[in-house]
């Protein structure tokens, strides 16, 4: 089999970590009997500064007939973040109905984490983030610019279809895992959308008596994730809450450098997109020290999605072996480079 993959390295460290991940994926393919046909796209902030657009007008059409999109990170100083995000990532997520943003974390071997020394070495949390609506909305506006009575209005949109499908996905996932699901809410302060979210959650929960479900205010949940992460398994949250919780969950297992993610179109009528939780990290861009593990594990999620589960497990095992051996980038307390970690993972593949 040959998989057709659209490759968008993007900005900053995205370029370095995507290069490493592609090498690992190509080698996994050669060991497991498939290969990749990569199509390269230079869509980025650099392109925006040259042409005035993050991607061409027919960009979505160019991606459409690929088996998946593999993306590094988008955004760099010089282009406002809302311009880069809404010029590329959000249009792809929405046009291709990638309404699930799946963000699993687990404690990796040898990684120093605030949890070290606790009974959490088996810790795994999966965030299911709503990825198509909610607080990420263009409805609203700025008014009375520069005046003392200046104000901004930002509307959030929650539809029954949108809320139901992501919650249902989370229940199905919880059923295949520990049988436990927590919904992030804030229905004390957000009085229209969050009570609606809670009602939809409760009605779907009734269909899954085998899943232990609960709802928690997102602020309390954030604290619990730091203090007692072992009490959590699958968490479902809105676009904003899921985003914030996934950075916290990444932080408690060693940082953004190891946290993978997938933007999934569960119906498979459009390509899904695979990009790590982290961004373009301008503070370390060009230094050759970005951790490629998050992008490589994101590649493993792509393999899983393509049905190459043995190869996905092999990539994940190779990551574990290399981290356990002490080859780590500075964010994990080591002194290895992006390239040396990537090479070590390629070599460790079975
Ligand atoms: P960031 O995730 O790029 O960086 C946050 C911190 O984590 C930095 O100190 C960075 O050095 C560190 N870090 C992140 N990934 C790392 C890795 N692989 N190895 C080692 N250290 C790593 O988030 P930030 O600084 O808020 O955003 C930077 C740019 O990235 C912005 O333009 C933002 O809009 C964009 N961004 C893009 C995302 C995407 O494309 N999906 C997601 C998040 C941010
Ligand atoms: Mg984020």
From TrEMBL:
Cofactor: Mg(2+); Mn(2+)
Stored Pfam families: Iso_dh (PF00180)
InterPro entries xref list: ICDH/IPMDH, IsoPropMal-DH-like_dom, TTC_DH
Residue ranges annotated for the Isopropylmalate dehydrogenase-like domain, each copy included: 4-345
Top-rank taxon, per record: Bacteria
Keyword field: Manganese, Metal-binding, NAD, Oxidoreductase
Xref: SMART domains: Iso_dh
Record-stated family: Belongs to the isocitrate and isopropylmalate dehydrogenases family.
NCBIfam families tied to this protein: PRK08194.1, TTC
Protein name: Tartrate dehydrogenase
Organism, as annotated: Fodinicola feengrottensis
